[in-house]
Amino acid sequence: MRRRRTAGAALAALALTGGLLTASATTAAADPETADARVEVSADSYTWKNVRIDGGGFVPGIVFNRSEKNLVYARTDIGGAYRWDQADREWIPLLDSVGWDKWGHTGVASLATDPVDPDRVYVAVGNYTNDWDPNNGAIMRSTDRGATWKTTELPFKLGGNMPGRGMGERLAIDPNDNRVLYLGAPSGHGLWRSTDSGATWSEVASFPNPGTYVPDPDSDNSYLTDEVGVVWVTFDERTGNAGSRTQTIYVGVADKEESIYRSTDGGATWEAVPGQPTGHLPHKGVLDAENGLLYIATSDTGGPYDGSTGRVWRHDTDSGAWTDISPMSEADTYFGYSGLTIDRQDPETIMVTGYSSWWPDTQIFRSTDRGETWTRAWEYGAYPNRVDRFTMDVSSVPWLTFGNNPSPPESAPKLGWMTESLEIDPFDSDRMMYGTGATVYGTEELTAWDRDENFTITPMVEGLEETAVNDLISPPSGAPLLSGLLDIGGFRHTDLDRVPEVMYQSPYMGNVSSLDYAGKAPDTVVRVGSSETGQNIAFSTDNGANWFAGSSQPSGVTGGGTVAAAADASGFVWSPEGAGVHHTTGYGSSWTASRGIPAGARVEADRVDPDTFYGFADGAFHVSTDGGATFTATGAGGLPTGDSVRFQAVPGKKGHVWLAGGSGDTYGLWRSTDGGKSFARLDGVDEADTIGFGKAAPGADHPALYTSAKIDGVRGIYRSDDAGGSWVRINDDAHQWGWTGAAITGDPRVYGRVYVGTNGRGVLYGDTAGTTDPTDPEEPEEPEEPEEPGTAECAVAYEVTGQWQGGFQADVAVRNTGTEAVDGWTVEWSFEDGQRVSQMWNATFTQRGGTVTASSVGWNAKLEPGASAAFGFTGSWTGANRVPETFAVNGAACAVE
Q: Which terminus of the chain has fewer Cβ atoms in its 10 Å neighbourhood, N or C?
């Protein structure tokens, strides 16, 4: 389950009035001793971009328009909808205008693009059908391809992030009369219809079956006990004329006994299609109207994670015959089928996926004879080796290897998982796109499959950002940003506009819940999270470039919780899930329970005093002045309770703390200047959920403040340059991104820059006009011509120690052949075939284009005459993997051994 926020936060009471702010509000002044000053609220003009990760979440739907070439949409489970821009080959986000009060509308349960009027597009939105989402679902409609929207609220909820979300499409437009739309609803609400282009909706009372399937009726978790419902609608366009309704309509229902229904009178009456198969759920239903064939892909569960069996069926709508055309025998099937598509240029060709085949990889099947025979994307050779029809090139999104180097039959990167959406371009038989749990892949060489020629699959995901953010830190030196993410862990972002090479490793944690750096020693970084290996804490002494796991952790730890680093990096305080608050000196060789603070408390460190740590739980603020050994509640009153409170200590100011969060009447922003002994509430801030600090404005003596808050009645992202004396709203109604209550931080090196964490739209960064960035990478200088190898006082040995389809491993050794010791070394070489380094050990690395630079680490930096140092790496390749011919050490050409 990819739930990106907790149910504990009280979102139902929030209201967004919208618009840029020009009014004033009464609030507390910055100084806790005064509380009656006026606070001016104004507006600023910001530009916003994503910190590039590219993907990172599940894409359950890809929809091609069938009347206009290159008009393609994608829907995500929590991150909104996107339109493909063919010119720039990137996705354009369409639902960034969704505000805080309707945060669930970033979950897209279905999408439809109008085949009659391609400017029209519709999305069915809503995140959860249980009480996690306080709002009902809605239909949003656009007449300008998603640039602007009008919304019709529905009388029930929709589940863009519920079980069964890869089934569909639930929303469909009549191809003959585009005023008519149908929506398949969950939760027993049946089938709904609009006859006025989506403006109003009513239930189709004659539809007989709202669906009986429930993922787990015995569960105590309401996420698993709701009916998946009516899951797809498709039209037989032969049975209508332009301007008049299509008469024959097919509908799929999540019911294992009767799942396929048909109307032959324009939706007035319905019947179960005779002779239909039973025992499975219809994930996809696609009609080849040219030949009168309805194809069905089924599974035993609703997915998208599960499914252990399934079948593929072909129904001749003229004769009524049903034919099992499954690519594998049922006895050999260990997954469900989905990803069903037809080549509209050649309807004899169909494809399906084994969407729930997790190991060793997903499977894609292709038939060029209506399902009579099939070929597979990969086959087993001499086990465990396999033979792939494709080559994966993830050089544009290198982290898709996940830093893995698995043994066959697994591979890195994987072909995919959760592959519920696969579509052949209706105008181009060579182009295919498909969604996975982490990205959108595609090819423009698809018909090579039929010629038994290898074709290349690449990420087609630029612009589509779907990570959910837990935490963000921006240290005063090193990389400008480190992120903590759900599902894919997080990254060290050395270049905001470039996709990182790989997520945090050693150890890898799929869910990084908290990060911190030492205030006076920012190269020391700590992260905590959840991992399959049970390693829940990791440390770095080089600003997050390399990591090592804590050598021990407290007994009972089940998850990351929150963590804090002493200002001088001398120790750490950790409040993990499953255990109480603990402290350590050094890097976690042993942990001791902290006294005086409850389990589950959120912890932070003073940025100046290395002995001072802070904690907050249940409305009480706690302070430790002995490195986290003991905490004492300060007695500060009036603070919020609950689990939606976040606080931060101010860099450079001992004892200064800002706290945000709460609910109801106790909801806002507080400040302390005495180490938490007392707090003053800023009365003009109606609600606040995050607080972060950035470089001070010119002439200011307090860091710039950033918050996701409601001020003067308007929700937004705000900046204050005078310690809360006045506020500037820096986003606008077109840039709201749903829920932004998890993490925010300014940049300590760039005035005005802010990083905002979202619940499914990744990390956004905003700059005010005139921002200059000292961390922008400089254009690389032309390398000097290396010296002749004959004068070299070094030698390099490079050996490929393992190679597999799309990946390889190599060892490199550098030897000092001179007469003087070398204190610190850097090896440089260039790949001629476009290889990309994904992970390196015993050295740090950068790569620009084909040029790789590997540098020593502390323990192997010094090379006495005749001594050697070795390091290794894994990488990706396509086409060829030739060994580099020349190497340079510290700028001098070396002999090659």
A: N
Provide CB contacts within 8 A for 170, sequence distance 6+.
109, 110, 124, 183, 184, 185, 230, 231, 232, 233
Dist CA 755 CA 403 (whole Å)? 26
Query: What are the DSSP E strand ranges found in 612-758?
Result: 613-617, 620-624, 632-633, 645-649, 657-663, 666-672, 680-681, 685-688, 692-694, 704-711, 714-720, 727-729, 744-746, 754-757
The strand pairing partners of 605, in sequence order, are 613
Ranges in the chain, pLDDT < 70: 1-40, 770-792
Give the whole-angstrom CA distance, residue 197 versus residue 679.
Answer: 54
CA distance 102 to 86: 31
Q: Would the CA dihedral through 777, 781, 782, 783 be positive or negative? A: negative
Question: Which pTM was predicted?
Answer: 0.84
Quote the CA–CA distance of 484 and 763 in Å, as a whole number. 10
Q: Is the link from the previous residue into 215 a cis peptide, with omega within 30 of 0?
A: no
For 776, how many CA atoms within 13 A lie in the half-sphere containing its CB? Answer: 8
User: What is the SS3 string spanning 210-223?
Assistant: CCCCCCCCCCCCHH
pLDDT number for residue 841: 76
465 secondary structure, DSSP code: B
Query: Is there a cis peptide before residue 409, judged by omega within 30 degrees of 0?
Result: yes
CA nearest neighbour of 830 among 888, 871, 879 = 888
| 883 in Cβ contact with 896 (< 8 Å) | no
DSSP character for 777? P
84 exposure class (CB count in 10 Å sphere: 0-12, 13-18, 19+): buried
Separation CA 275–CA 852 (nearest Å): 62
pLDDT of amino acid 792:
66
| Nearby residues of 677 by Cβ (< 8 Å), 6 or more positions away | 634, 635, 636
For residue 382, what are the contacts with CB-CB under 8 A and spacing of at least 6?
Answer: none
- DSSP designation for 787: P
- Which string of b and e fits 637-660 if b means at least 16 CB within 10 Å? eebbebebbbbbbbbbbebbbbbb
Q: Which sign does the torsion angle of CA 727, 730, 733, 737 carry?
A: negative
Q: Select from 7, 69, 670 the least CA-distant residue to 426.
A: 69
Catalytic residue positions, numbered: 77, 487
* pLDDT score recorded for residue 559: 97
The sign of the torsion formed by the CA atoms of 885, 891, 892, 896 equals: negative
Cα(131)–Cα(157) distance, rounded to whole angstroms? 10
Phi and psi, residue 401, nearest 5°: -75, -15
Closest CA to 877 of 350, 293, 392, 254: 392
Predicted pLDDT at 791? 52
Inter-residue contact 259 to 253 (CB < 8 Å): yes
Sheet strand arrangement including 293-299: 281-288, 293-299, 312-316, 322-324
How far, in Å, are 235, 387, 725 from residue 106 at the CA level?
28, 40, 33
Distance, in Å, from the CA atom of 349 to the CA atom of 328, rounded to the nearest integer, reads 17
Q: In the 8-state DSSP scheme, what is residue 820?
A: S
Q: What's the Rg (C-alpha) of the chain?
A: 29
pLDDT of residue 774: 63
- The count of residues in the chain is 897
pLDDT of residue 832: 87
CA 85 to CA 604: how far, in whole Å?
Answer: 43
CA 758 – CA 744 distance, rounded (Å): 9
Peptide bond into 227 cis (omega under 30): no
Q: What pLDDT, on the 0 to 100 scale, is given for residue 521?
A: 97
The predicted structure's pLDDT at residue 490: 98
pLDDT tens column, 118-137 = 999 999 999 999 999 999 99
Only one residue has tokens 């007392």, namely 678
- Tally: H helices and E strands in the chain: 0, 73
End-to-end CA separation in angstroms for the chain = 52
